[in-house]
Give the backbone structure.
Amino acid sequence: MTAGPAAADRRVHRPAAVFDVRDVYRERQNADGVAAVPAGPVRFAVRAVVAPSGRIEPVGWELRTGRTRSGFATFADQIVDAGPPLVIRRLPRSTGVVEVRATCPGFQAAVVSFVPGQGQPTRVDLTPGIGYPFERITVRPGRSGPSLLRGAVLDPDGRGLAGLTVTVDSALYTYRTEDDGAWVNVLPDPLPAPHVAVTVAVPAGRTGQLDPASGPGWQPAGRDFTVTVAVVEGGAVPVPELRLRIV
């Protein structure tokens, strides 16, 4: 028995991937079981494509995606190669795994992998970035709202350092710095303790040297650097600036 036109149409237009992108902080605050979809556009830069012939790590490739009414991002099979010149490519049928970096205004980037045509949506959990609108998120009854820590990791000349991991005791997530070196983190509500330790980890294979221009309290801790700060429930606390010379 041959498939009818409708079945054939479904085969042709079945996407190579579907992404279930979530605002995990808003979901935690709402706690109503409803998926929280980021309002802004989500872009997927290709980091690597793995096929039987080997692995390639292209520069300037981005998935061309659409968005469903329910908020899923869909990828048919077209990739935009920024070039120059700009070229539209199609994902090779032999592709085994694609690794992408998902970005959305106000969020940290997230790296995920998918197998084209696997059928199941690929979950993409986005955590707050520097521009996240904490003030717009509904606060649960009886709670004070987000308790934030904000800081920056800079070089001795005041330029941002990218690729460092910032961890805060009891915080909801870790933060990986971008080119501006700025970071933000949020603590559970209510606060677990009046003071928390902030730790900055240098990427593997590199060494950091504490610069005298750093703010007060920063101390080396093995290959990492740490400071203890007092936190304010429902408020934003600036963490002393950390300046490092990375070698």
User: Anything to note?
Assistant: Residues 144-246 form a domain with the Immunoglobulin-like fold (CATH 2.60.40.1120). The longest strand covers residues 43-51. Residues 5-13 form the longest helix (9 residues). The CA atoms of residues 45 and 62 lie 4 Å apart.
